[in-house]
Design brief:
This protein is α+β, with helices and mostly antiparallel strands. The protein has three helices and nine strands, in the order αβαββββββαββ. It has a four-stranded antiparallel β-sheet, with no helix packed on it. A three-stranded antiparallel β-sheet has the order 1-8-9. A two-stranded antiparallel sheet has the order 2-7. The N and C termini lie far apart (about 50 Å).
């Protein structure tokens, strides 16, 4: 192998490692500083919900989106009277000043406009813990001001994290 090929390989590995560290740091920052938002999970048949050691999540806000919602954009959510967050608006930008609610970035999954993906559609857990997580009613997301979100846990009907 030529010396220049080795240098290119090493530079690519350094770049890849740097990008990985940057991405992890961004997610950690969201977890530390983001706003906790509880989104109601849409009903799913429990027999198909558990597949191995993870749970496929579907959010209530992702089920009933307006026809005119952009293909890719932000859903603004705000808390209701019981502290669960509901969608108030779908748009393709984040307003400079948000008077109410928090933005969550989304993308449509299909051309039929049936649902959207907000980036946290699977929850992994230890083997044999499935029964405990079947009681999940809410998905807990940490969200930053730019609409980036990280799933931090599942919550029961009393809004207590399931561990």
């Amino acid at each position: 192998m030529k010396k220049t090929s080795k240098i290119i390989i090493v530079l690519n590995l350094v770049f890849l490692a740097g990008y990985f560290v940057f991405a992890v740091n961004q997610k950690e920052k969201i977890i530390d500083q983001g706003q906790l938002i509880l989104l109601e999970l849409a009903p799913v048949d429990p027999r198909s919900l558990l597949q191995g050691d993870y749970m496929v999540l579907s959010y209530d806000i992702a089920q009933n989106i307006p026809e005119k919602a952009p293909q890719k954009g932000y859903v603004l959510v705000k808390p209701d009277s019981v502290g669960t967050y509901k969608a108030i608006r779908f748009q393709n930008y984040i307003p400079e000043t948000i008077i109410e609610g928090y933005p969550i970035e989304y993308i449509r999954l299909d051309s039929w406009n049936i649902s959207i993906k907000i980036g946290a559609e699977s929850y992994f857990f230890e083997e044999g813990q499935g029964k405990k997580f079947e009681k999940a009613v809410y998905g807990g997301l940490k969200v930053d001001k730019n609409g980036n979100s990280v799933l931090v846990g599942l919550y029961d009907k009393n809004k207590q994290i399931i561990k």
